[in-house]
Amino acid sequence: MNSDSDPIREDNETPDAHRESHVQASECYPDIPRTPSVPTSPPPKTHCEITCKTENNLWDHIKTGAEILGVILLAVYTGYTIKMYCANKEAADAAQSAAKAATNSVTLQQSSSQIDQRAWVSVSDVSFVPQVDSFEVNIVFVNTGKTPAKDFTIHEAGELVLNRNSPMSKENLQPGRGIIAPNGAYHSKLSANGYYEAKLGRLIVHGRIDYVDVFGTGHWTKFCYCWIPGTKASKGGFAPCDTGNSIDDYHPPNLIK
């Protein structure tokens, strides 16, 4: 019994001997990878970060491009709006200028027509008429315009003025009002008692006539005449004074600026 069992114990290998041989075999071939016994691990963290950063960069580029495009579109729209505003303003200014020019043209035409058609009253003659014990001064007013002079009034005076002096007498309103037709005349007389002698001073008649034209505009004419005594070589007569003869400064209606 003992002799049969001993050989059997010698042929069986012990567990430790088998593990040692497996370990030694593994150590003899260190380059052979071992078969993993667990599942593959997820991608490392750095790879996720790279992928997310790439997506963020792409979105940033898209956002920046959209903003730039928006700015460009806004600039184009703004430029177009400014261009349209300038064009409309130029058109409005041109229309306004044309309207002003047309209005001023009509105003000037009306003014020119009124100047051409209005009444023009002035003194045409002043004469000295001696009487037995007095003398008269006859003043003739004439309307050289194309329409009547209406509602005229006359202020006038006559006086003796020493040499180098100016007339000082008040011009008195003559009675009556009237109309002087185109190319018509009106005679006004100043009378004085006594005789006139040149040695006493200069005989001066002066005054003003006011009237209204058919367009409703008032006008006036101032006059001043001095008697020049006659000589053997020439007949005496009235001559305009150095000052005191003028007419109103007629201005046409204001033009639109």
Structural notes for this entry:
This protein is an alpha+beta fold. It folds into two domains: 42-115; 121-247, Sandwich (Immunoglobulin-like), CATH 2.60.40. Helices cover 38% and strands 29% of the residues. It has three helices and ten strands, in the order αααββββββββββ. It has helices spanning 2-11, 15-28, 45-117; strands at residues 121-130, 134-143, 149-161, 172-173, 178-180, 185-193, 202-212, 218-228, 237-240, 246-247. Strands 3, 4, 5, 7, 8, 9 and 10 form a seven-stranded antiparallel sheet that branches. It has a three-stranded antiparallel sheet with strand order 1-2-6, with no helix packed on it. A hairpin with a 3-residue loop joins strand 1 and strand 2. Mean pLDDT is 79; it is low at 1-5 and 20-28.
CATH class of the largest domain: Mainly Beta
Q: Quick one: how many beta strands? A: 10
Which structural class is indicated by helix and strand composition?
alpha+beta
How widely separated are the two ends?
149 Å
What's the multimeric state? single chain
Instruction: Give the second-level CATH assignment, the architecture of the largest domain.
Output: Sandwich
Radius of gyration over alpha carbons? 63 Å
Number of domains: 2
Mean pLDDT: 79
CATH topology of the largest domain: Immunoglobulin-like
Which overall shape is indicated by the principal axes computed on the Cα atoms? Answer: rod-shaped
Largest sheet: 7 strands, antiparallel
- What is the CATH homology-level superfamily of the largest domain? Immunoglobulins
The portion of residues forming beta strands comes to: 25-35%
